[in-house]
Amino acid sequence: MNYLSLPKIDLHCHLDGSVRPQTIIDLAAEQSVTIPSQDINEISSLMIAPETCNNLEEYLLRFDLPLSVMQTEAGIERISFEVFEDAAKENVKYFEVRFGPQLHQQQGLSFDQIIGSVVKGMQRAEAMYDIKGNYILSILRTFPKDNIRDVIDAGAAYLNKGVVAFDLAGAELPGFCSEFIPYVDYAIEKGYRITIHAGEQGVGQNVFDAVSLLHAERVGHGIHITGHQGAYDLVKQENIGLETCPSSNIQTKAVNKLSEHPAKAFYKDKLPITINTDNRTVSNTTMTDEVRKVMEEFDLSREDYFNIYRISIEQAFASDEVKQHLLTFAE
Ligand SMILES: O=c1[nH]cnc2c1ncn2[C@H]1C[C@H](O)[C@@H](CO)O1
Ligand SMILES: [Zn+2]
Predict the structure, then answer these.
(1) Where is the active site (predicted)?
(2) Which of 10, 12, 14, 195 for mutating ligand 1's site (highest number of atoms within 8 Å of CB)?
């Protein structure tokens, strides 16, 4: 099968984990930021998480280098444009990209400048390529909570004009959800859709909590519902979208190997799974690679693929108009 030509939808991709290595070198020179090497191979190897990663925390160390050049409006706009361009060139037709505005204030940018820059870059790519997109604002679970409402307020000006949803990301501790109830409620009040990273490193109870306490409509990863019947049943009953990111899950040791990934069993049991990249550079992947891996390892047919494609449309935080457009690519 020609995986490159298949129409694709990626609902879970981090901007800062998807920066082109050459762009790091270019922007570091432009911005006079010191980076460990000027050699593209060395920069690439510093950005890609190794197979020897022990856990999610080690995986997350790979984001410091890209973030060092994502502190100006021009740098952020360029990186946003490029991730949409890269995805468009492999036939991603709809792309939800997420990032943490709190991580881009090292040189004093306001949240409005930061969010405005990612949206501008995305819109530049949308005008040039056959791709539509939206941004998701991720709050880092380990960060101080005093500016979360400021992020939500700044993003609200862009709601349904490039920004659609709110997410919690970063290291996952058991029971993290309860601390975030007031913030998620505030985001919902403002009109954000909700997706939450849960059941990746953490326990299945986190998925149960993300849905029941934080009203998540989708969860990032959600792997560990396998060990938690209540979470599994809730996901099934409420049709909660599972944002599966196969390569990332292996790197972070959320699963040992692809053949042990529960997504196949989820799909057979009619849970709404989607296929996503998580981090194009840190996980050294593309949507074409992720789709190929899933189709080959799980022995899925073309009909299965388009079934998953339709699930992604249903789960997307896109407008009805965009969903209609995406359906025109379905077989
Ligand atoms: O797979 C992930 N799980 C939890 N957090 C993640 C993952 N990939 C990236 N992040 C974090 C690191 C980034 O700096 C942040 C915002 O994109 O989100
Ligand atoms: Zn993620």
Answers:
(1) 200
(2) 14
Catalogue the E-assigned strands of the chain: 8-14, 92-99, 132-140, 163-169, 193-198, 218-221, 241-244, 273-275
CB-count burial class (<10 Å; 0-12, 13-18, 19+) for 79: buried
Token pair listed for 20:
């082109």
**Residue 86 annotated as part of some ligand binding site:** no
Distance CA 131, CA 107 (A): 31
The mean of the pLDDT values for the chain is 97
Write out residues with Cβ below 6 Å of ligand 1: 14, 16-17, 56, 60, 63, 98-100, 103, 138, 169-170, 197, 200, 248, 278-279
Would residue 200 show up in a list of annotated catalytic residues for this protein?
yes
Residue 331 within a domain: no
Give distance in angstroms: CA of 212 to centre of ligand 1: 23
The pLDDT of residue 52 is above 90: no
DSSP assignments along 11-24, one per residue: EEEESTTS--HHHH
221 is in an annotated binding site: no
| Within-domain flag for 21 | yes
Given a contact cutoff of 8 angstroms between Cβ atoms, the answer to whether 96 and 131 are in contact is no
**Domain range for 54:** 8-322
**What pTM, to 2 d.p., does this model score?**
0.98
